[in-house]
Specification:
3-stranded mixed β-sheet, alpha/beta, 15 strands, 28% helix, 8 helices
């Protein structure tokens, strides 16, 4: 089964606390070992138990694809070194006032979009470390593009109020089909309730059956 229901620390907002690629997952240290084992098995990725910069909001703070991981300035050198040693990733801390990078950037292995208000110096780091074309855009006319969508290398699911021009930008840049949907019983900030890579999606326990169908199809996890 490519989609699993899961809460983290009693919350269905698993995408706020966790971050995943095909190779690794950042999970708060407070998550139980039994749940860590399930996450590792389902994602097919090595789990790193970490509170970035002392915060449990890993999914809000960091952004990653299979090439690189971008951390906010509040992450410390120990965080950076642990991630460097975890695999063949380029790791960098973004020295800018923006810290909720996971909410401001949406990326897969083909491209990425970002909050148009990010400074050019930050965009250069994103391009260099993630190794993809980065384009400014909005989703549903909002700039929190990383919070409003989830993308893998098979598809994207975005806020239900995605505009036609925004959909075209997403499809052109990420090079995958784009669908719209929600998680956790109607939450349009889809990233908040979802953790996904190219193999599987873990979604909050409040997610309904129809939402699961849309998520699975959108991310290319089911036929």
């Amino acid at each position: 089964m490519p989609i699993h229901l899961m809460d983290v620390m009693g919350s269905p907002n698993i995408g706020v606390y966790c971050l995943a690629t095909d190779g690794l997952a950042l999970i708060p240290t407070y998550v139980s070992q039994s749940k860590i084992q399930r996450i590792e098995k389902w994602l097919g990725a090595g789990v790193i138990r970490m509170n970035l910069g002392g915060s449990i909001l890993n999914g809000v703070l960091a952004v990653a694809n299979s090439r690189g991981i971008i951390l906010p300035r509040l992450a410390d050198s120990e965080d950076e070194e642990r991630l460097r040693s975890a695999g063949d990733y380029d790791v960098a801390r973004l020295e800018s006032k923006e810290t909720a990078l996971g909410n401001l950037v949406l990326v897969n292995d083909f491209g990425g979009i970002y909050d148009p208000e990010l400074p050019s110096s930050a965009v250069k780091v994103l391009k260099d470390v993630l190794g993809v074309e980065m384009v400014p855009s909005s989703i549903a006319r909002l700039h929190l593009v990383g919070a409003l969508a989830v993308a893998n290398n098979k598809g994207t699911i975005a806020h239900p109020l995605l505009e036609d021009d925004e959909r075209k930008t997403l499809e052109d840049v990420l090079k995958v089909p784009v669908a719209v949907g929600t998680t956790n019983g109607g939450v349009p900030f889809v990233k908040s309730g979802m953790l996904a890579n190219n193999r599987v999606a873990l979604v909050g326990s409040n997610t309904t059956g129809p939402e699961l169908v849309i998520i699975g199809q959108a991310l290319g996890l089911v036929g």
